[in-house]
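Problem 12. The chain below contains 811 residues. Write out its predicted structure in token notation.
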Amino acid sequence: MTQQQNDTDRHRRPVHKFGGSSLADAACFHRVADIINSQRQPDALIVVSASGKTTNRLIELLNLFTSGDNAAAATLEGLYSFQRGLIENTLDETEAAPLLAALDEDINTIAGVLENHRLDDYQRSFIQSFGELWSSRLLASLLNSQGVPAASLDARRFLRVSGSPVQVDEALSREQLQGILAEYPDQTLVVTGFIAADAEGRTRLLGRNGSDFSATLLAALADSSHSTIWSDVPGVFSADPRRVTEALLLTRLSLSEAAELARLGSPILHSRTLGPVSASRQQLILRCSYHPNDGHTRIERLPRRESGARIVTSVDDAVLVEMTIPDRYQDRVNALTEWLTRRELAPLACKRRPERKLWQIAYTREQAEQAFSLLRDHQPGGGFEDLQQREGFSLVALVGKGVTAQAEQCLHFYHALNEQPLEFIQPAKNGLSLVGVVRKVMLEPLLLRLHQSLFSRPRRIGLILFGRGNIGQAWLKLYRQEKARLEQTLNVQLTLYGVFDSKGAMLASQGLAVEQVLNNFQPESMVWPDWLENLEEHGFDQLVGLDFTASDTLVQYYPNLVQQHIHLIAANKLAGAAEQGFYLRLKQTLAEHRVQFLSNATVGAGLPVQSSLRQLQQSGEQLRGISGIFSGTLSWLFQRFDGSQPFSELLLQAWQQGLTEPDPRQDLSGQDVKRKLVILAREAGFDLDPEQVKVSDLVPGSLAALEKEVFFDRLAELDQPLAEALASAREQGGLLRHVARFDATSGEASVGLEVVAADHAFAHLRPGDNVYAIETRHYRQNPLVIQGPGAGREVTAGAMQADLWNLLAGL
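Solution.
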């Protein structure tokens, strides 16, 4: 994303909605004001509901007055007393005065409307609108008293609706809203939820859960980037946490799953609320106003790749609306369902019983009353007879992408419900839910059993190994040793699904045995991108690729792997140190697909270098610099190079002992050290381009392009320049070391020979050791030093295994 796009997003005014429970008393108003201040969004749009039970009290007032009950006057007095106390306890005397005067006027207005004795629907809606208006005024005044420029905005000024149920005129509403927003460019607007106006200016209500709908609708009309609904819960859980204590907060939920959960009567999400989300660019976030730091649920448009249920939901008090449909009208069932859906009465579940010509529809009690009334009026021409309601039912459902195709989960569900007084089970046509209707029972044991069947099942993880070299084979042996412990601790089921090397690949959904891969590897020839297609239908909950190669070709396909939601663990440095454009595109692809990429084995093998950098960042430390000896080969060479023998002889010894690459020039060039330095700088949050690193190659140009055999014949040509460098170091009273260095303040990075003092941390190491010095604000004079073996097949394999453990623990 470009800087210009980021700036544009910042100016798309965010929307925050606070419900009645979030505004229940003066303390709640102050808590909400603190949240708004903490967001640091001076142009935010805040949607508010009526405080506490204010709307219920207004409805009670209307019902009492309509029935002629003398208690209406006492109810109105109670409303006045509650609102007056709320204002006085929230604001100081001076700030409260204008709101108290406005409240007196509003109460007189309400009393005047009631004295008419002829209340129509518009007047009833007008009286109900005062709850939101009072909340909007009070919160705006509180924010102003705290130095936040804010204004109260009555949604009837811009939100135009018509019809019954109300339909929003989006074009006109958007046009009128834009004019208002232009009047308040840098001001927080506190907008009334739940209410709108028709073309004649009469008050109209947005219906059940209208304030949540107001919020996402406002975000769509204002082209907001985010809308956040704050309530008394932090989001959507895998089950009702009041009934299932093991329920987990779901940090991400697809829009389709959220819509299905809303359709099934969730008290957290409502179908109308999600409509504007799907029709606009906004992201919807659910958070808790009482505990803002307790996590959240983000509703996302991208569908999940993984299939299966994520949520157990229920409706305690369900009602069955039943009717008989004669054979000649059986084809009208679908049309009748659509007719109900258009009236916002989509069935929670339904069952056709052709043998009895019976159609059963499940609703919540509130929906059932509305549906029954509509159907009764529609009955003469609807093609159905014997309309009736049956009470005393409960509804239980599993919700998640493709749950109806998950044989194991379906089996658990059918078994659990068959032990109950079952009425029927219905798989949703869209595959997003499996719904059961049972006679009313105590639901807790059933919900707990279903939840345990979902979340106690081990996650099935398929592992794909790239590279069967020394480190790959060391990891296979370690994996064989650690597999059972990892599975038991993390509740996963691991399968070695595929192994690739330069000759080809072996893939087996039932899994490959480690012994077979080590001793009897018989690959089939596969070429890019054919084998990528073979991975598409894998049947695992997650796939994890482990790259033990040094292949640039494989790295170029990392984005393709990520797009298939394959998590990556790499000992291969080429991705983390790639040129800036590729690296940034890879990071963006990882973020978009929510795929993890761990590469702790790329620097320091098993040493905790990258993890230490992350921990320092998380603790609030500011990085000042990273330096060290990053090459085990160069560490060995310069610890031993004291002038007693030529450098070329030491290099030949190191090569003969297998301490260098097959061509030692790869070590001497400093390119591998440069990659490690780039990886660490990027891990620390700096966009260091490899081209910015100044590298001093220890191989003269005259030797760089030679065939390897010729290079070995002319090794002695290395001796004079390095002897001179050693002599210069001694003249300065220091030691010669090969050092990588990144200065976070200047952004400068270098790799090459340096002279260090005899008491420096880089001066005396065990031959072959790596050392990493991390300087931060608090580790300035005395840097954090990490030292130890920085290479070797076993320690690198161990680092890959540690990354696998961390990745699986975080899934």
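Discussion. The longest strand covers residues 385-399. Students who got a different answer should revisit the alignment rule from Section 12.3.
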